[in-house]
């Protein structure tokens, strides 16, 4: 384990009045944790007031100023990312809430629940402005279309349903899966929906007709997630078979299979379209119809992500996460410099990176794809200033 990054962790997560924090915390100008930790040592490091049971998801608003979290306590909570404080409680579901997502303009939140409904909420008032009813089993996921005019919901009733956000009326039922549907996502042009299911398939649907566009078959176990990159030319999917597959949506065939040997969840493409966030690190998207191989990771803007127990920046280990702060679910904002982490201990925390004051070595292209730190001269000078 890299001792410098563990030292950073000790400073960041130490109580406010501890001697180590008082002596050296001012050196950590390039990273921030919200909410702040407790004043004195305690068996609880920091628990945000709000959720009283497990947190299932945490998602940024489009402008990165808010996070919506969904919980087993039947509520959705809104959090101010600049302070870490709760700024709203959306109450109305009668069973656990599985996910909550913002509309593209940030004015609405859609929440999916085991009470068989999707509910729409006004983020400025916290008031419910719609209940989308029609599923006959638990609703696992809800997602807005890129223009915000539709919501797609995925349910244990084996269907995906489309809803008009202006009227709350159902405008389509996508039927064909033979088992629970775990998630659904729109293509960037809104013409397709991809749905992932316990029936081991990803299915593509034409949103204008509601008819099946294709079936992506190859996983050998439950498919947990599916996502399009910004160019919409492929789909990435993860499964309980411990693989990540990339699919060409034109030919409906597998482009690449990655076998990390562990369960992958919560995938999301970074805005550059090249990098796929996962809970175990970042994967490069394969190129389509090119002999050039994968893209060079050094050609993209650096971003923050989680790789197992580590906060990474520019593919280098930056901060070790104590057990109570490791993600059960996580999201990265569009700037690539802010993390929202829903922990297994029911906490919501935010970690932000200020690249203008970051040690210089973290801004250099990484020559080690494993994420090892490059400790150059400037970086060692920074270490000496910390008197390690």
Question: Any descriptors?
Answer:
mainly beta, Methylamine Dehydrogenase, Chain H, four-stranded antiparallel β-sheet, globular, disordered C terminus
Care to give the gist of this entry?
The chain has helices at residues 3-13, 19-24, 377-385; strands spanning 31-34, 55-60, 66-71, 75-80, 86-91, 97-102, 108-113, 117-122, 128-133, 139-144, 150-155, 159-164, 170-175, 181-186, 192-197, 201-206, 212-217, 223-227, 234-239, 244-248, 253-258, 268-269, 275-278, 281-284, 304-307, 310-313, 316-320, 327-332, 338-343, 348-353. With 388 residues, the protein is mainly β.
Explain what this protein looks like in three dimensions.
7% of the residues lie in helices and 42% in strands. The chain has 388 residues and is mainly beta. The strands form 8 sheets. Strands 1-30-29-28 form a 4-stranded antiparallel β-sheet, with no helix packed on it. The protein has one domain (3-385): Methylamine Dehydrogenase, Chain H (7 Propeller). It has helices spanning 3-13, 19-24, 377-385; strands spanning 31-34, 55-60, 66-71, 75-80, 86-91, 97-102, 108-113, 117-122, 128-133, 139-144, 150-155, 159-164, 170-175, 181-186, 192-197, 201-206, 212-217, 223-227, 234-239, 244-248, 253-258, 268-269, 275-278, 281-284, 304-307, 310-313, 316-320, 327-332, 338-343, 348-353. The protein has 3 helices and 30 strands.
């Amino acid at each position: 384990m890299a001792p410098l990054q563990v030292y950073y962790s000790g400073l960041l997560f130490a109580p406010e009045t501890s001697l180590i924090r008082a002596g050296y915390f001012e050196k950590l100008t390039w990273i921030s944790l919200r909410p702040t930790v407790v004043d004195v040592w305690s068996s609880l490091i920091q628990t945000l007031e709000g959720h009283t049971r497990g947190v299932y998801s945490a998602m940024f608003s489009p402008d990165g100023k808010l996070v919506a979290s969904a919980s087993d306590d039947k509520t959705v909570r809104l959090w101010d990312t600049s302070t870490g404080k709760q700024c709203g409680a959306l109450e109305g579901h009668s069973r656990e809430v599985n996910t909550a997502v913002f509309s593209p303009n940030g004015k609405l939140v859609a929440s999916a629940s085991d009470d068989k409904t999707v509910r729409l909420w006004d983020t400025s008032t916290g008031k419910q402005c719609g209940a989308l009813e029609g599923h006959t089993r638990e609703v696992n996921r809800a997602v807005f279309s890129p223009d915000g005019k539709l919501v797609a919901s995925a349910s244990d009733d084996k269907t995906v349903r489309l809803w008009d956000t202006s009227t709350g009326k159902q405008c389509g039922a996508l039927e064909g899966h033979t088992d629970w549907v775990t998630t659904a996502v729109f293509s960037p042009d809104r013409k397709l929906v991809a749905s992932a299911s316990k029936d081991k398939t990803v299915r593509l649907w034409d949103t204008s007709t509601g008819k099946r566009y294709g079936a992506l078959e190859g996983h050998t176990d439950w498919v947990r997630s599916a996502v399009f990159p910004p160019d919409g030319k492929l789909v990435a999917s993860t499964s309980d078979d411990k693989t990540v597959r990339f699919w060409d949506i034109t030919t409906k065939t597998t482009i690449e299979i990655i076998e990390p040997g562990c369960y992958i969840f919560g995938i999301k493409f970074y805005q550059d379209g090249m990098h796929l966030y996962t809970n175990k690190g970042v994967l490069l998207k394969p190129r389509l119809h090119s002999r050039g191989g994968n893209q060079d990771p050094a050609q993209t803007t650096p971003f923050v992500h989680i790789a197992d127990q580590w906060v990474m920046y520019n593919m280098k280990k930056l901060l070790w996460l104590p057990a109570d702060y490791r993600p059960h679910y996580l999201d990265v904002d569009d700037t690539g410099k802010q993390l929202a982490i829903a922990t297994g201990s029911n906490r919501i925390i935010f970690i932000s990176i200020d690249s203008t004051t970051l040690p210089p070595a973290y801004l250099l292209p990484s020559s080690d794809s494993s994420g090892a730190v490059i400790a150059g001269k400037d970086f060692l000078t920074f270490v000496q200033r910390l008197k390690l």
